[in-house]
User: Fold this.
Amino acid sequence: MKRVYVNEEWCLGCHLCEYNCAFANSGLTDMAYALKGKPIFPRIHIEGNEKVTYAVSCRHCTDPICVKSCIAGALSVSEGVITVDRDKCVGCLTCVLVCPYGALSPSEDGIMQKCELCLKNSCGEPACVTGCPNKAIVYEERGAAN
Amino acid sequence: MSDYLIIGNSIAGIGCIEGIRSVDKTGTITVISGENHAAYGRPLISYFLEGKTDLDHMNYRSPDFYENMGVDVIYGKKAEKLDPEKGEILLDSGETIPFGKVCVSTGSSPFVPPFEGLDTVESKFSFMTLDDALAIDAVADESKRVLIVGAGLIGLKCAEGLKNRVKEITVCDLAERVLSSILDTECAALMQKHLEENGIKFLLGDSAVSFDRDKAVMKSGKTVEFDILILAVGVRPNTSLVADAGGEVNRGIIVDGRMATTLKNVYAAGDCTEGEDISLGQKRVLAILPNAYMQGHAAGVSMAGGEESFNNAIPMNSIGFFGFHAMTAGTYEGDLYEDKTEDSIKRLFTKDDLLKGFIIIGKEERAGIYTSLIREKTPLSSLNFEILKQSATTAAFSPDLRRKKFGGMV
Assistant:
């Protein structure tokens, strides 16, 4: 299955992926209207140290501990993609407690959100990938994650 | 005759079904469900009281789950006797069900101390099941004063769920602090302050000793008047099926990594069991939902002849009240790293080059990175702990480890 991967050496740490992600999942058509002057809640985020930066989003693990740990049965796997049912999630953050990648975070209303590969939003393919100015983020087949 | 019999229809039972079906698509599966409900997210009962979820959204799996999995569920009956030699279970209805292999996932039951005068209290409840929540839901209104005995996870989540629905809530506990099973004194004080700011009253280091209808007499001699009494003193693993059949039982049913008990063809999973806590290096009851699922899954795979061990269990909890979260994992032993502000605390415990446990209140971002280091026993010398202790980030990992974790390419 195709996943989002990041080349640390090419990542500029520019945070554009965070903005593209937040916009793609906003349901709005105007980026400035969607994001300007507001706190954003992206499903990908930049991490790094003084030497390196890289973007982190859900690995869509083949054996996902978040799904096994969800107290509401709100996280599930469908065709390899891990999605959250926002109507079932109660925002307990158990998935944050267990995700080894730090890839889940709550949305503005406290309900969880996560990278769902832009398969359901208007973008149709990962917006972080299409918008990465240095092509550091790629969407490709590499085999199973842990 | 059922190839696989599962006693208990909660999280471990569902994990067991999914484990069996990952190996055996056709063997017959029967589930005995004491509760008259499809499996639901048990910890959701407080969110149900709070109005953050409803009966339509509490189902742990989709409504067609049992049908899709080819599972027969017998609702409203309880297993009374297990005969491992004959391979039979006797139900309280008198029926006998023969099985090939059985998984005992009977959970735990509220422990109610023998309080003097408890029988004179009309409106009293435990808080373990959806039926408990429905019963409380039916009597809660803004005229009611609630007394909750027990300031643990169950009692406090109940308090949060009821807060905006009743007149007042008092929580008492013999322990000197809230959440005494997972928080130390200072962390508990921070959480207690937050709960008090949200209107919960506490009587700690003091608990009810006797009741007279709508009045509790405390150990200190104080009296508390109430309309609704919630008993959340503690729970006990339901071990009797296995114990009575001669299986090894300590506080919980003893299982190995494959979730086999000491009885032939008898497996066990979930809150009724006692497994190895790898952060402590000892067996203990780890009554938490993720472990219930993972134990159930391992039991199911093992029962169906596959290979799956669950052998990196640790205690871990994420619990929030009124938007303020505490996360805890592992055991609190070894050297302490601490980072405190007025409204947050982070405590990391390290020993023998390993992260052994943590308590994080208020700053929970990416805490799973810490949790995974405990579960995977990652040597701290293999990463930059100076960075890691300040912030849960994979940036503290060596490039090699990070490359491996994030999928090979860098």
